[in-house]
Design goal:
CATH architecture of the largest domain: 3-Layer(aba) Sandwich
CATH class of the largest domain: Alpha Beta
Strand order of the largest sheet: 12-10-13-15-24-23-22-19-20-25
Number of strands: 25
Radius of gyration: 22 Å
Number of helices: 13
Helix content: 25-40%
Largest sheet: 10 strands, mixed
Distance between the termini: 36 Å
Number of domains: 2
Shape: elongated
Structural class: alpha/beta
């Protein structure tokens, strides 16, 4: 599956809009598109899926390693893969868009803001290309999309200034219908604030699709499958999936389904916990649906199942639901499952953001003592622990409290970190469930 990466000069330059416009334009040409996103983001991929109707792959060398990243890319399906970058092209070091591009050996089409420049668009793009060459980085900046560029002399000035080694891939006109509103944790999700097909068609009307198709290239080879989970009974894993529990990597769902049976349920809609050998509560927005969660049957059943020793794993929002209570920014406190000895309170600004490495100090549903897991945390809540709380992980980020994470009770674990299937955590959960 050939691919390209849509990178940007900085955050906020219009990468998401450009990526969606390229995806839709390819589809209009009859191509089947596989979306992907550099970095650990869950929200931009929801916009990809709204346009393409296919889960977006997460490509992050920190979470997955180089082999895992390539393996994840090759698990996608389609004629062409369009990867949206993260931040500016070189921002983030080993977690940057440039690192993803080098690992996959895919070309980059650079999105440059042309709203207040013309020839300088070419100078900027050339500088980004020269930066890779000067620093010995295996990054191919192959083309340019001029974001918020008009036609006529404006476009002509940009095109004529570009050197021959940089392909002009078109422009995207200013359009208020291409704006996506945001809230805490980032943009609104794709199904909440989708850009209309008509607006994306307008955005793609001046893209040079044939040039973009010519830029796409073969990726680095597939390193082959991960080590398989040990033989035995295929466990049944119940995964919460609704408006409160949204943040699940497609690779995690695939891993759980491939090694067992995955069954989803909706606590917000009033579903109880289905019969299962383990429960996974992903992250999301439980604070927005705290009243519905508190009024449903799932939380009481979680407490019962936890006391019986069922393996239960909650990530970020899932951890918050396993706590004793959740207080929203409006000051309303709602009882949660009460499995983990902690109370959670939402704050107005984020409390942690970044990649983390977890060192396991005691056995948990997702790791044994001495294991290391890599993940990502981004949350707006703080936690107050009861005096007898036991934390299983040392963490190089904020975690739940003072460089510690992994609150455990019975065989239930809650953590602020989101981990990827390539970390091995879900293999361990499946083993614990047999």
């Amino acid at each position: 599956m050939k691919g390209l990466i849509v990178g940007g000069t900085a955050s906020g330059v219009g990468k998401t809009v450009a990526t969606l416009a390229v995806m839709q334009a390819f589809q209009r040409e009859g191509l089947s598109v596989q979306p992907a996103k550099a970095g650990p983001d869950f929200i931009d991929p929801s916009h990809h899926e709204t346009v393409v109707d296919r889960p977006s792959r997460t490509l992050d060398t920190w979470l997955e390693g180089e082999d895992g990243l390539c393996r994840n890319y090759h698990r996608g399906e389609g004629d062409v893969c369009v990867v949206e970058g993260v931040m500016g092209l070189y921002d983030g070091g080993r977690c940057s868009t440039a690192d993803v591009a080098a690992t996959l050996d895919l070309p980059v089409v650079l999105v440059v803001d042309a709203s207040a420049g013309a020839e300088s668009v070419a100078a900027t793009a050339l500088g980004f290309r020269a930066y890779a060459q000067r620093n010995g980085l295996d990054v191919r900046v192959a083309g340019v999309i001029a974001q918020q560029a008009h036609g006529g002399s404006h476009e002509r000035s940009i095109r004529e200034a570009l050197p021959s080694e940089l392909e002009y891939c078109g422009r995207i006109l200013p359009d208020s219908d291409l704006e996506i509103s945001d809230r805490h944790l980032g943009l609104h999700l794709g199904e909440e604030a989708a850009i209309s097909e008509a607006a994306l068609d307008r955005a793609g009307a001046h893209l040079r699709i044939e040039r973009l198709r010519e830029i796409t290239d073969e990726p680095a080879p597939d390193p082959g499958p991960r080590q398989t989970v040990g033989a035995g009974e295929e466990p049944r894993v119940a995964v919460a999936r609704d408006r409160a529990f949204r943040f699940v990597y497609p690779a995690v769902r695939q891993r759980l389904a491939a090694a067992g049976e995955l069954v989803t349920f909706s606590p917000v809609a009033g579903d109880d916990i289905p019969e299962a050998d383990a429960v996974y509560l992903p992250g999301g927005y439980p604070e927005r649906f705290a009243a519905e969660l508190a009024g449903g049957p799932a939380l009481a059943t979680l407490a019962e199942k936890a006391a019986q020793g069922l393996p239960i794993y909650g990530e970020c929002g899932g951890f918050m639901v396993l706590a004793e209570s959740l207080t929203t920014t409006d000051g309303e406190t709602h009882d949660m499952a009460g499995v983990l000895p902690a109370t959670v309170e939402m704050r107005e600004r984020y409390q942690a953001l970044g990649h983390v490495e977890l060192t396991v100090g005691r056995r948990t549903p997702i790791g044994d003592a001495g294991d290391t897991l890599r993940g990502h945390e981004f949350h707006y809540s703080t936690t107050t622990l009861d005096g007898d709380a036991a934390l299983a992980f040392d963490v190089d980020g904020e975690g739940i409290a003072d460089g510690r994470d992994g609150l455990r009770e019975y065989d239930t674990l809650g953590t602020y970190a989101h981990v990827h299937a390539e970390s091995g955590a879900f293999d361990t959960l499946l083993e614990r469930s047999r």
